[in-house]
Amino acid sequence: MIGLGVDIVDVQRFRDALARTPKLRARVFTDTELESLTRRGPDADIAPSLAARFAVREAAMKALGVGLGAFDLRDVSIRNEKSGAPELVVVGRAAELAALRGVKSWRVSLSHTRDTAVAIVAGI
Fold first, then answer.
1. How many angstroms separate the CA atoms of 104 and 16, rounded?
2. What pLDDT was estimated at residue 2?
């Protein structure tokens, strides 16, 4: 393993940030991520899932040994395999940093409750 990162996000705090900054969704999340979550229906509470996906970005930075600003937040995203398992997608500057560090593959785990979201990312 080359790097391991974990991040925890308070869902209500993240929900408040989304309400305060309407452009935050488009700045942080890919269209694919947003479309996959909005398919749940107009009344679905997607804030916990968005918070977990935000935690993935922070955990990926930690796994790469870099801080906020090292790459665009949209350079890291989640797509779901047919089984529903999350798959980490790394592009752009994040992919360049991963290649420089020798990362060949990724493992990711997400979880959330109504109150807390967590992500663990391993670069292998």
1. 36
2. 97
pLDDT in tens, 11-49: 999 999 999 998 999 999 999 999 998 887 778 899 999
C-alpha Rg value of the chain to the nearest Å: 14
- Cβ neighbours of residue 82 closer than 8 Å, sequence gap 6 or more: none
Contacts 24+ apart (CB under 8 A), 102-105: 102/2, 103/2, 103/3, 103/63, 103/64
Domains detected in the chain = 3-123 (3.90.470.20)
Strand partners, 78: 88
Question: Is 30:74 a contact under the CB 8 Å cutoff?
Answer: yes
Alpha helix ranges (H) inside the chain: 11-20, 24-28, 31-38, 47-64, 92-101
Contact 106, 122 (CB under 8 A): yes
Residue among 26, 48, 49, 24 at smallest CA distance from 36: 49
Res. 72: pLDDT tops 90? yes
